[in-house]
Amino acid sequence: TRGAQTMSETSEKPTIYKGLVGVYADVSAVSKVMPETNSLTYRGYAVQDLAENCSFEEVAYLLWEGELPNAAQLEAFKQETASQREISPALHRVIREFPKDAHPMDAIRTAVSFLGLEDPEAGDVSHDAQYRKAKRLFAKIPTCIGAAYRASRGLDPVAPNPAHSFAENVFNVIQGRVPEKEVLKSFDVSMILYAEHTFNASTYTARLVTSSGADMHGAITAGIASLKGPLHGGANEAVMHMLKEVGDPAKAAAWLHGRFDHKALVMGFGHRVYKSGDSRVPTMKKYAEKMAEVVGDRTWMEISRILAAEMLEKKNIHPNLDFPAGPAYYLMGFEIPLFTPIFVASRITGWSAHVLEQQADNRLIRPLSWYTGPEQRPVPPLAAR
Ligand code: ACO
């Protein structure tokens, strides 16, 4: 409910929901997470069914439109988005000026902000304009990631090909090649699984920005900033650094026990909502295993298997999606700092679906804080301090 103002006049400390744990902050019809059955649906469809039966483009359409497209709608959607992949010469120039050692997440955050400066409907926050902006971002984000990555390596950008599928395009603009079908399928699956996940930190950030009446590019720029953190999207990179640090399946258990001694976080494990298994993990694991087969290297999956078994046995903590996604991207030939930007290329769909939902029934998001600072006091003159 919209509820009454709850500003309390009492001096009794109210319940503080630190981290907003267990708080229902709003309603949403985009997705539903059911931790009791380790399941997740997008607009009513189970993610694992979408992953096995649909392309990422179909899922993007579903998240925005609420229904899966028919063949004609899908074709029109693919054409509309694929034809908008180019970025301006000005943005290419800006990207070439980025520091070569900048993290690709900072590069994509800056590029998306720049796209907001140039957007033909920059000042228009009507639903239709905001939706068109979301589709433009969906089309252009891989181009920006590819251009920034390649510039940092002294390489020329690869022009997006409008005939490519979303997955083919990502490989082409980053790696300059389109891999075989099984690799594309594994990648598409990861895009579908990463697309949406209710009120996670970055999505809630995007909704919060939207709640003040701000525009799509502002909300998405903030979402990217939030996703970068290692407790959130940044974990997929951290997972692969960890697997490489372990290096050898024979060392995995001892390495993990060393982490336990220091009470250190083990990246890719744990989840705020799921406590008995992440709905997306079995599907992603299956496709990470397929990648290991394609590449002919089982090292990372074997280390992963041992770490997951030990974490479950000793700590009763399950892996999250980032755990199988990290090695899957590595086996697909992506450099580690590109893993979280690739997550952005997917999550733009969920973020923008939430932005549109937030603005359709908006109320400024403005919680209260319980003050714990000094008592009220007089300002001493400068000379007396
Ligand atoms: N490694 C070791 N211990 C862990 C881990 C972990 N990855 N995750 C949780 N725990 C422990 C906590 O230390 C805590 O122990 P305690 O009760 O003895 O203090 C207990 O499990 C409960 O965990 P919380 O911290 O209460 O869980 P919370 O919901 O606050 O945090 C989070 C969830 C941030 C995801 C956490 O599990 C974590 O930091 N994981 C590692 C980072 C990661 O993989 N993030 C990706 C999230 S999924 C995604 O973005 C796609």
Explained architecture:
The chain is mostly helical. Helices cover 55% and strands 3% of the residues. It is built from 16 helices and 3 strands. It has helices at residues 47-53, 56-65, 71-82, 89-97, 104-118, 127-152, 166-175, 181-194, 201-210, 216-227, 235-246, 252-261, 281-295, 299-315, 322-331, 339-360; strands spanning 31-34, 39-42, 45-46. The chain has a 3-stranded antiparallel sheet. Strand 2 (39-42) and strand 3 form a beta hairpin. Helix 5 crosses helix 6 and helix 10 (216-227) crosses helix 16 (339-360). The chain is globular.
The main sheet comes to: 3 strands, antiparallel
Can you give the helix content as a percent range?
40-55%
Q: How many β-strand runs?
A: 3
Proportion of residues in β-strands: under 5%
Round the Cα radius of gyration to an integer and report it.
22 Å
How are strands sequenced across the largest beta sheet?
A: 1-2-3
The shape, in one word, is: globular
Average residue-wise pLDDT = 96
Strand-pairing-aware structural class: mainly alpha
Q: Helix tally?
A: 16
The N- to C-terminal Cα distance equals 49 Å
The distinct ligands, each listed once, are: acetyl coenzyme *A
Low-confidence stretches: none
